[in-house]
Amino acid sequence: xxxxxxxxxKLARNSDILFQKVHKYILFILKEDASTFIDRANLLEKIGxxxxxxxxxxxREHRNQLVHEYFPDQIIHLYPETLKFAExxxxxxxxxxxxxxNKNFITH
Length: 108
Known about the structure:
- The chain has about 110 residues and is an all-alpha fold.
- The protein has helices at about 1-30, 35-45, 55-65, 70-100.
- It has 4 helices and no strands.
- The model has no long low-confidence stretch (mean pLDDT about 95).
């Protein structure tokens, strides 16, 4: 049970950092404004930071499901999807990193 919980917590935390910090700062630097998460995801796709806004939205929805699931037996049922979304989150991370490297916002 602890392993399931730890994976879910790490997915939620890392997606929060990427979506709520890194992506927001990219839009701030570019002087772009998007008030909702869905608007930000679509804008990030449009400017080439991420490949697919729907994937990001699905990660966020799964994150919300994990964070708001209070029954331990239900978390076990989310585990296979959590593995899938962890891989997807890595894909979004590398896409974001490549964008930042290409724009010379970071060096490596």
